[in-house]
UniProtKB/TrEMBL annotation:
It comes from Oryzias melastigma (Marine medaka). GO terms for cellular component: mitochondrion. Transmembrane segments: none annotated. Keywords: Dioxygenase, Iron, Metal-binding, Oxidoreductase. GO terms for molecular function: metal ion binding; oxidoreductase activity, acting on single donors with incorporation of molecular oxygen, incorporation of two atoms of oxygen. Pfam families: PCO_ADO. This is 2-aminoethanethiol dioxygenase. InterPro entries: PCO/ADO (IPR012864), RmlC-like_jellyroll (IPR014710), RmlC_Cupin_sf (IPR011051).
Amino acid sequence: MMPADSTMSSIVQRIARQALVTFRSPPRFGEEPSKSFLENHGKLRSLMTEVRAPDLKLVPRRSDDSSPRAPLYHPGAPPVTYMHICETDQFSMGVFLLKSGASIPLHDHPGMHGMLKVLYGKVRISCFDRLERPAGGPQAEPALPPAQMGALRRSVLRSTAEYTEESGPCVLSPDRDNLHQIDAVDGPTAFMDILAPPYDQDEGRDCHYFKVLTEAGPTGSEQKDKEVWLMEISQPSHFWCGGEPYPGPEVSLSSI
C-alpha cells in the first residue's frame, strides 16, 4: 500500500493536505502571521500555481454562440455553478465555473483567508478593503435616505487585475483584498477556490454583497489606492449559483 504522502498522490490531494496544515492556526484580523504560517502559505501558493484543468478532469467550455447579439447564457440556467471537492472545519475547496459574460458580484469573506487559481479562461478580479470611518474626516458621505446610511461602508479599491491559467493565484486575507468581484472575460472560465475557514452563518461568517456608489476621496487624487463608498445590498437578482458534480480525483479527508 502506498503511503499517504506518496508522490503518486494527485495534486488535488496534495493541495488539500497543504491547506489543512496551513490553516490549522491562521492569523486573525490584525495579527502578524507566524513564520510557520508564512512558510506553509508559500507552499500552498506554489501547489496552487501548478494546478491545471486536466488535473481535475475539467474540459474547457466554449460559449454557446459566438454571435455578439446572442444571450450570454440561457435564461433560467445559473450563470455560475460550483463543484464541491471537500470541506473541513479549517477550509473548503471547490471549483467555480462562470459562463461567458457572468460575474460573481462584489462580496466579502468575513475573517477568512482565501486563494483562487484560474483553471481555464480569463477572469478580472477587483479587490477592495473596508476602511475605518475617520472621526471628522473630509470624505463626504453620499446623500442617502436615513434608512440606508447604516449599509454604507468606506472602502478602498486595492487592485484590478486579469488572471489566466498561467497566472499565480489571487490571495486574500481577513484584512487585505477581502472583498472582491470576479468577472468572466472573453468567454467561459473556471477557477479553483480555497476559503479558510469556510462560510458559516452561525459563526458570523456570512456572505454579504455590495455595490460601488462613489469615490470617497477627492477626484483626480494621485493616491495609489482609490477610496470608494460601498453600500451593502441584497444578493443581486441576476446572480445565483447552481451545483455540478466534481469529476476529478477524490480527496480523502482521512489521509490529510
